[in-house]
């Protein structure tokens, strides 16, 4: 359970170089700073260091996660450009009157990506912890680029299923890698805004991707089909991102873009939050602690239920909008408002969380309400020809973006211990994959004339589950913080605990953010 103290044993310090650090027991931060005494930090220097870290990581991470979202979401647009017909992803039964269309293959093409991600998440997270970041992340992203571009060469629906599984497997390294990177470079207070920045790539690339796909929709000649050009472009952009990943430093201790003095500041400023920097030894005791920590289960439930909507919207959004009487290209353009909601409200919620303490869960609950409203509006309004209400409702579902971003922040900011952080990062996105697997299965093409009732009912239920589990997490964390405040700990010992690679359950100086 949360906060059960464990006996902490003094362990040997860190030795060796930082570029090839051995799997030592304690945090590699101890190679730069004293474990016993906190150093004074010049606020001007700290601000300069933070700015350098932001400039190196945030733009590239936003683009990187935008590409993660884009190469999944383009399946919905590609299906409008002939991919569904070319690969026989939909089957029309002409023996019925009127003829019926079965899109279950398209549903599985969407879902099977997440089975691949599910298979890769825990191994990738532990590999990222154990080995140098750029030696893992860089090569895998380059492989991802090749696999993505190879979609253009797929000629059967069976081949697409295989390709999508491997695409999900290699992409699983990105979200967990980003969570671990942010937790290694930023304080608890700073993490909400930084997670929101990279996760807002979903909204940015919903807009950019929609514009690109609209452009590809104008192609009327050429040796390739329009949907093949889309995948080739996505692969090329991903390859460029992969080149950047080859230069990611392992931690602030070895951050080559900082001076020697700035690296000390980058490490020392993380002491107060007690979350540590990086330890490359995998500790089974921390894995076992995860299994008894209620946070893991509640955050997993929150993520799985909140992200179910993405599995439906990313794979079927343009198809659903096309049933409102809009043509293929207009259906793609209607992804813009949904993307705009993500672009505006994901960073806004992150900014508020970084400025106003303990507002993460409150904002999460508030953002659930527009999603529920949007689902009900699409379902119950009159569709007709070019209707306004369902399009507005569809755009409101974009509030799932800030909901999920805040869940990621809650998971990343409320754990300590290198192995436990890796397991939490994987767990958050295992739940993400579960939601994405379920989402497409809620789309039943046979009930299109009734506005897909199974889809909207299922999504409303999922967001009610998100609300209940988020409330339970708020209560659990608040009670635990109050208990720790009453322990009467010796504050002079706080600084000595920061870089001992203790978990949040072992370190009673750790405080949870709400």
UniProtKB/TrEMBL annotation:
InterPro entries registered for this protein in UniProt: MFS, MFS_dom, MFS_trans_sf
Compartments where located: Membrane
One protein family per Pfam: MFS_1
Domain Major facilitator superfamily (MFS) profile residue range list: 57-482
Domain of life: Eukaryota
Main location: membrane
GO molecular function list: transmembrane transporter activity
Segments crossing the lipid bilayer: 53-70, 106-128, 140-160, 166-185, 197-216, 228-248, 296-320, 332-354, 361-379, 391-410, 422-443, 455-477
SUPFAM superfamilies membership: MFS general substrate transporter (SSF103473)
GO cellular component: membrane
Membrane protein topology class: Multi-pass membrane protein
Keywords per UniProt: Membrane, Transmembrane, Transmembrane helix, Transport
This protein's name: Major facilitator superfamily domain-containing protein
UniProt source species: Talaromyces proteolyticus
């Amino acid at each position: 359970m949360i906060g059960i103290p464990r006996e902490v044993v003094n362990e040997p310090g860190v030795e060796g170089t930082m570029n090839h650090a051995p799997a030592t027991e304690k945090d590699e931060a101890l190679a730069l700073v004293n474990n016993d005494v906190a150093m004074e930090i010049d606020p001007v220097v700290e601000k300069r260091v933070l700015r350098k870290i932001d400039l190196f990581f945030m733009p590239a991470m936003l683009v990187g996660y935008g590409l993660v979202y884009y190469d999944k979401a383009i399946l919905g647009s590609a299906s409008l450009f002939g991919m569904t017909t070319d690969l026989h992803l939909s089957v029309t039964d002409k023996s019925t009157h009127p003829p019926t269309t079965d899109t279950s293959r398209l549903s599985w093409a969407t879902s099977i990506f997440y089975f691949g991600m599910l298979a890769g998440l825990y191994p990738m997270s532990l590999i990222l912890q154990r080995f140098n970041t750029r030696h893992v992340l860089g090569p895998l992203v380059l492989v991802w680029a090749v696999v993505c571009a190879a979609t253009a060469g797929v000629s059967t629906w069976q081949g697409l299923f295989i390709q999508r599984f491997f695409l999900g497997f290699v992409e699983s390294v990105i979200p967990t890698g980003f969570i671990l990177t942010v937790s290694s470079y930023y304080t608890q207070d700073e993490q909400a805004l930084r997670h929101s920045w990279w996760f807002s790539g979903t909204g940015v690339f919903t807009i950019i991707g929609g514009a690109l796909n609209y452009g590809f929709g104008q192609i009327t000649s050429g040796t390739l089909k329009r949907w093949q050009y889309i995948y080739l472009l996505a692969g090329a952009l991903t390859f460029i991102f992969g080149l950047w990943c080859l230069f990611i430093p392992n931690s602030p201790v070895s951050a080559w873009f900082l001076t020697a003095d700035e690296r000390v500041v980058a490490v020392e400023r993380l002491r107060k939050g007690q979350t540590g920097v990086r330890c490359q030894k995998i500790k089974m005791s921390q894995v076992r602690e995860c299994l008894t920590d209620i946070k893991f289960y509640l955050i997993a439930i929150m993520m799985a239920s909140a992200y179910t909507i993405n599995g439906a919207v990313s794979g079927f959004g343009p198809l659903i909008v096309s049933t409102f009487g809009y043509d293929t290209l207009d259906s793609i353009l209607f992804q813009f408002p949904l993307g705009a909601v993500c672009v505006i409200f994901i960073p806004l919620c992150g900014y508020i969380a970084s400025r106003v303490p303990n507002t993460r869960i409150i904002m999460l609950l508030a953002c659930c309400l527009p999603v529920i409203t949007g689902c009900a509006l699409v379902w119950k309004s009159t569709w007709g020809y070019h209707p306004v209400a369902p399009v507005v409702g569809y755009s409101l579902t974009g509030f799932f973006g800030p909901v999920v971003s805040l869940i990621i922040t809650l998971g990343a900011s409320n754990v300590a211990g290198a192995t436990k952080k890796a397991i939490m990062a994987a767990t958050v996105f295992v739940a993400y994959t579960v939601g994405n697997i379920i989402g497409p299965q809620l789309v039943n093409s046979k009930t299109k004339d009734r506005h897909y009732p199974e889809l909207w009912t299922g999504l409303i239920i999922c967001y009610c589950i998100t609300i209940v589990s988020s409330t339970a997490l708020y209560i659990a964390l608040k009670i635990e913080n109050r208990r720790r405040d009453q322990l009467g700990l010796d504050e002079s010992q706080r600084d000595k605990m920061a870089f001992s690679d203790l978990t949040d359950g072992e370190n009673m100086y750790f405080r949870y953010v709400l």
